[in-house]
Structure formats: C-alpha cells, structure tokens
Amino acid sequence: MHRFLHLILWLLPLTAFAQDQIFGSWQGKMSSLQGKYIFNLDILPNFKEGNSTIKGTAIHDRNGAKEVIELIGILYSDQSIYLSDVANPDKKIEVGETFSKLQFLLKYESGILVLDGHWQEYEDLHRYRKGRLVLRKRKSKA
Among 5, 10, 82, 138, which is 20 to 30 Å from 94 by CA? Predict the structure, then answer.
C-alpha cells in the first residue's frame, strides 16, 4: 500500500504538467487521401465539465474551403487525448453534414512537444474519411 501511494503521488505532477502543456495553439499538417492540409487546433480547459475535460477549435483549409470545428474532449492520464464534434452526430447526419473525431498522443520528438494522431470525418455512422495529424505547439508572441 505504501508503494502504491508513492506511485500515485509521483504521477499526479506529471498529469498536471501534461494538462498545462496541452493548452494553447497547435499547428501542423493533416495528410489524407485527398491531399495535405494545414491544420490548426486551439485547446483550452473546460472547467464547466471537470478537471480532465478540454475544449478545442480546429481550423483547416481544405482545397480553399476553410472549415471550423468546435470540439470537446478528454485528456487521459496516459497522455492520450480524444476530441469530438460538440454537435450531436445524429442531427448533423440527418441534415447532410459531417462530424469529426480526433485522437492524439502527447509526446516529445527530438525534444519538441508534439500531438501525434488521427482525424476522422464521418459522413454517416459507418462511412468516414481519415487523416493523419502531426501538430506542434505554436509559441506565443507575447
């Protein structure tokens, strides 16, 4: 029991560190069968929903059509992040729109913090387009 308590106390600062590091603006490329696109993601805490919940805004420019997606998600203790469209998927499909889901792993590559993951855009509950995302945190200009 004593060792378990030490392990928990050791992991708590790592989770808090990851939460602080995840918030902010991220930019990178999304690669899919349709091409490569610049992808921007802003992540903020979602205090209304609890400590591990986050909210985000994704912006990507696909073939000249800029798309903005409002997201809500969870940061897990294993440094994985899951985000999905805030809109109800059934309602979006009903009116002919798509909805998105994103999954990331927060990790370091060559000493730089990276969100490494995937994006899916669902046309219905069974068909989706997918893409690969690698995002790096943008430095603040202040």
Answer: 82
pLDDT tens readout for residues 73-117: 999 989 899 999 998 888 888 888 888 999 999 999 988 899 999
Torsion of CA 29, 16, 108, 33, to 10 degrees: -30
Q: pTM for the complete prediction?
A: 0.78
Strand ranges, E, within 1-142 = 24-32, 35-45, 53-62, 65-75, 80-85, 99-109, 112-122, 128-137
Give, rounded to a whole angstrom, the gap between the first and last alpha carbons of the chain. 46
Contact, 108 vs 92, CB < 8 A? Answer: no
How many alpha carbons fall within 13 Å on the CB side of residue 127?
5
| β-strand partners of 27 | 40, 136
What CA–CA distance (Å, rounded) separates 97 from 56?
Answer: 19
Query: Which long-range CB contacts under 8 A does 100-105 form with residues at least 24 apart?
Result: 100/58, 100/69, 100/71, 102/41, 102/58, 102/71, 102/73, 102/133, 104/80, 104/133, 104/135, 105/79, 105/80, 105/81
